[in-house]
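Tutorial, part two.
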Amino acid sequence: MPHHLSSPRPLIPRKLLQRRPAVVACAAVAVLAAAAILLLAAPTTEVPSRALLAGGSLPSRPREEPHAAAAERFAESSSLPPAEAPPPSLKATFSTRITPSPSMFFEPASSPVENFDDRSMEEPEHPDIKPMSSDSTSSSDVSSDRVLPPDPEIPLWSTAADEDLIYAKKEIASAPLVSGHPDLYAPLFRNVSIFKRSYELMEGLLKVYIYHDGAKPIFHSPYLKGIYASEGWFMKLIEGDQSFVVRDPNRAHLFYLPYSSRQLEHNLYVPGSNTLEPLSIFVKNYVDMISAKFPYWNRTKGTDHFFVACHDWGPYTTKLHDELRKNAIKALCNADLSEGVFIRGRDVSLPETFVRSPRKPLGGIGGKPALQRSILAFFAGQMHGRVRPILLRHWGGKDDAYMRIYSRLPRRITRRMNYVQHMKSTKYCICPMGYEVNSPRIVEAIYYECVPVIIADNFVLPFDDVLDWSTFSLVVPERDVPRLKEILLEIPESRYVAMQSNVRKVQRHFLWHPKPVKYDIFHMILHSVWFSRVNQVLQVQ
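Running the prediction step on this input gives:
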């Protein structure tokens, strides 16, 4: 990933709990006051009268033939036009305009990521943040055995949406065999038949409700540029969607919490405070407000709710709310199994995409054909985290035509070939972890049709639930960095050519489009959230 010129960012030591009491107290008071203003000033989203009964349950549909009813709804939805109009009775209830409270937050200042030199400088990253001391899962590499998620929560009462999910789960389990699909290349997938059937059911059944509560800039403010752009693009596209989003929460299979982890850091973090406590308190208060105001969180204890966060701090801001951390579906770029936050099988590994121009998110993609790539391996970036210094120590600063490993690209080299041109001319793009396991270089390598070499133990790869990364990338354990050149040279040319061809084929699943297209990154993220929810649904006995 190119380095980027930026203003100094706040550095946080590993031991966040060692903080100044006075600073924490002041920050906590300020955030609690802001949260109180949020409750008073944020726009009200009324719940339809049938949502909450005196007995604390929702009316349910007759359950004599739940799967037949779900199949009927799927067939009906498949014939509907893409744009679904809200029920007439709800048009006056819900406002499409989110009115922020002017006193809640200051206006966000320009971010350092807006001023990136996107050809030669490193992206700003944060130091290691390890505030969680709860049960952690360690593994030596990303190919370790799967860690099973906790048992799903049984909903307090059943809804038609639950019947849809149970129907979808059975349909996926008996998916018909897919062969020779023109849009889905089978070797890229763990099971292309299951993916195709699940995707079809998502298109036909899935309904998402977006909470309207919350003021800008933390809510409903997509940030579309830089290394945290994935969460912003997803927010922008889901809030503009007319196929999946519904205004009646009683029809929803999933509930989206529309806050930005990037905006949390930019607006609530106190430079020099060395604590994420204000961010965590804010998130806790927001979820508490949602669960007090509406019945939907409490029905499943959050298992049908999800949020999307690409900032490194995203996982750690959930630590003060147990149900959010343990039950909700977390779509995270920082998908680290060793931290005790990311739950494999429930949470979603979000691709970290570096968007240079929001107006042209697809600008510059592509690269040289496989046989015209003259560089074996390339990396240039800042030396932070545990892996990069080792990589530089073994392979940097050497007169080696095969291994082009730099901390920063020397000017004498950039005059002839800049960062992007290097990636487009390289066989294997090295993607070592930084302060956290995720790296935007992985998707960037796919954009430039370079085989990613991922060096980050405990990292769950994006769309790991459906994609077979071994067909288009290479995962190298951190302990094998000294053998990196040997490992790469041992790969037969025929295997490299096949992997590079697969990189070109898988690229479509990682592309942002201003208007989403089938099987693109927006739909892949949404599918992973849907697939997680389907796999966890339980029927009320």
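The first helix runs from residue 21 to 41. In part three we will examine how such features are distributed along the chain.
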